[in-house]
Amino acid sequence: MLELRELPGDVLGVRFSAMASPCELLLGRVESDLALQLGSLAAAEAQRIEQKFSRYRADSVLGWIHRRRGSALQVDEETALLLDFAQQCFELSDGLFDITSGPLRRVWQFDGSDRVPAPQAVAQLLPCIGFQKLSWKSPWLCVPPDMEIDFGGIGKEYAVDRAYDLLLARCPVPFLINFGGDLRVSRPLPHGPWKVAIERPDSARKAAMMLEVEYGALATSGDSHRFLFKDGIRYGHILDPRTGWPVPDAPRSVTVAASSCTEAGLLSTLAVLKGKGAADFLQQQQVRSWVLR
Amino acid sequence: MQLEPTIGNLRSKLIAASCALLGGAPVARAETHDVVDTINRALTDWQLDAALAYYHENGRIQAVEPVINAEHDLADGGQLDFDFTFDALSGSSPNGALTSRQVQTFASPSAKSFAQARHMYTVSSGNLPVDPNYSDARVAGGASWTLPLSRLTRARLGGKFSYEDDFYSATVSVGLERDLNDKNTTVSFSVNSENDFLQPIGGAPTPLSDYTQFEKGGHETKHGVGVLAGVTQVMSRNWITLANVSVDRFSGYLNDPYKIVSVIDAVGSPFGYVYENRPDSRTRRSVYWENRVGWSQGSVTADARYMTDSWGIHSETAQVHLRWWLPGRDQYLEPSARWYRQNAADFFRPWLADTAAVPSDVSSDFRLAAFDALTYGLKYGCKLTDHLGRFGRELSEFNIRLEYYEQSLRGNPAGPPASSGLDLYPKLQAFLLQIGFSY
Lengths: 293, 439
Known about the structure:
Structural class of chain B: mainly beta
Number of strands of chain A: 17
Oligomer: heterodimer
Structural class of chain A: alpha+beta
Order of helices and strands of chain B: HHEEEEEEEEEEEEEEEEEEEEE
Radius of gyration of chain B: 28 Å
Shape of chain A: globular
Helix content of chain A: 25-40%
CATH topology of chain B: Porin
Strand content of chain A: 25-35%
């Protein structure tokens, strides 16, 4: 379902829903027919990626891979590229970013309650976590029987970049593509940069942070609404896959500007995983970033 | 000395990684994806295994057996399983009589009398009496449906049939499985019921009747019920253990209609033969324990079973398979060994003396004797050219398996008078060659 709306400053918006998030394509002055056409292209790409990589759907690549655990599979090119990327991120982050951390969800349910799992329950899961335990040599993948993989940590940002590539060749005017807060712009509007509101996680829409973007991408990671609270300790939903426990002192939200949404997303995720060291880490990487604690 | 990565080092690598991901080969767009979808749907998640086995016993039976197994994953997480087997057996089968110095002559099972028998066979001195015209063809198939009832519970419904010239069998089973403990533990419970119909060639003989009187006729039935409870536990990333206990009970006609027992006189000559008779019910209890341990270069499966039954038999089995992947992980060698030991059924008698009364239950079938069996096997498998699966290519596998089986009677049951020097209980040796392909 596409919804067209006119915004101030000669901007057209096409809204749709994908990846369990509100999504929107914003465009400079074009015919509304073209806007809808481009919007449906972006929506179709988001849905394609969602369907293909969903861990909930039996007919997704992940459904297939999980049913065939234990045997060697030759995955398609796109899945192979994502696995390569996930492997490099795993290695670059010394295991902080890990697409095999899914089993931890079985014991951690971030519903705002005080149900913090027993240490033994967490420890029991650690043997089935760790990218290095997968057998992966592009294009051959073998997932051990008790492991899972999940592209949730990069899927949305990857979809933004893919949709961006599709539109770049077809859209005659500047555009901004936004999937649930992760976004990328092609170039500034004729009258200036894009103005983007980033939600403050703690107080939803009251005090949005306004950013101006001319080129590149923004991605935000954080634990706004997902946490557990017990004995005065807030357990955020960012889990360290090496320990199975939430990262202590994780910032509530980190927004990073980078050239692609995938890169921005990874940097913001890694920054949150660094906990107390988030700001130092971002400074070292020489990226523009906004850390909210 | 700088311990932290240099400034922006991680970022520059990340940029390179992102570029590889995003600038990579063209991605299937929505339009082409649909096409691939349609082509693949026909192949979706069918897994086929086919094998052809050749079995040969020393001087006895040989069998050729094609086996086909198909598995189909359903979109709701369920699974369908089908298998189909065809056996063609031919050769010689022991008829139960004891080896003698004398020439022994028998009629084939279809005979109604010696005078009118179409086939007779003669066993020369010192040889185990076997019916040389033994042949049988068997068609068997089965299907099972596993259906998820909830995220953690599955039901399994199954059916099997088997058809031979003289034997029909049908089995149904119902089972439940439940995952516990974050899916690290699975418990299962199943019940099954089997109904068999026997129509022996020439008719079912009257148990314990004199072989030369040809008291035969009619058909027989047997019925079995069984329950099985099991638990599978993931012990660690590399180790799975499973255990089950089962009890089953068969009742009805449990004899082998073609087996006779020699009645020997005081000087060691065959005085006559009687048809065997077994108790008309049998209850078996067994426990089974299996462990699978895997590592990057291979895996080991080791299992043990203990069985005891109301016929006085108890048996122990131990088996180990070692799968070892050759460098490159596309070929493997799998040596295996199996050890089996059982003691004799209470009513096992290799022969009867003509001076003693015939017991109410008696059989000379070597399968009910005390024996040891050893099986050695070696399997080689290699991954073949890939084929199109749902989202990419999957490997097919070719494998070849060779097994050697040796069974020898234990305890050396006493022979009749004047039988020294005769090989009364010859060793059984068999080999099996199987060629398989899984797709």
